[in-house]
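#lab-general

N.A. 3:47 PM
ok so I finally got the sequence cleaned up, no stray characters, all 310 residues accounted for. can someone with queue access submit it? mine expired

B.Y. 3:52 PM
send it over

N.A. 3:53 PM
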Amino acid sequence: PRWQSWLVRMQSGFILISSFYLIVQMGVLGLLLLTYTVQISSFHEATETAISITKSSDLRQWSWQLLFLANLYWLDPVLEQFVPPEIVRWKEVVCYGGYLVLLVWFLRGISDVDNCLTRYGHFAWTHILIIFLTFQASLLLRTLQHGMMWYIFSVSIITINDIAAYMCGFFFGRTPLIVLSPKKTLEGYLGGGVFTVAIGPVFGLLLSRYEHLACPTAGFTVLSCTLEPFNLARGQIPPFLWHSLYISIFASTFGPTAGFLCSGFKRACKRKNFGNLIPGHGGVLDRCDCMFLMASFAYIYTANIAHPHS
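B.Y. 4:20 PM
back already:
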């Protein structure tokens, strides 16, 4: 039933939001653990989906080895302090050598040319996942040095957009938006976009008023800083309010495209969802697909516009 699905989705959403709030209270450590947990869970779901089509279960361990190498190569600077200096020093050499071993492993596993296409499909899909999940997740972690609010806002605003688009589509949706995601409607896309752009600056302003969210970080520690003044009557507006507006515009326009991309793959595999861990939402990747695109945009924005000289 339509309304039952709506209620289940809302209940799960409330639990997810509450859990995220508790994770934020853990500080940088909590966000690091969350990022790696989401990345690994998403990789598992997407890899199992691919294996169900390619029937290349013997490449499962190979895929996880590649994921390990990718996480080592893009290891977060905060975690590097817990890795032996020799490994950090020779990280690129180790990863490249490991990749050559995996390449030989893959080629040696081909015993019949008739199944080459499916195995190469698995090979390509795993590399796509590494770029989409591991690389973009590593970029998001690099925004933490400028303050946790960049991370929090980026993943939250795309979630707000998704919820708003779902609500608008549920109540007002009539016009199909894209064939890759049959339930998405033009009304939901536009309504969600307008709501996101309207609420984004307000949410960004709220985050910027808390020192433990707005101040830069060093390792697991939040440094002390002076908050930007806010006085609307005097025209004193924190820069993050404007930053949050621009990020909200991206989230409401290009943000959903990551979801369409993943939906297309699921349709190609004759699957409705990547998993069933979250009632009403599907798997972890079903819930977080758009967040990975927001992750790379958040890094590009902070590194080139908000903090170009840091």
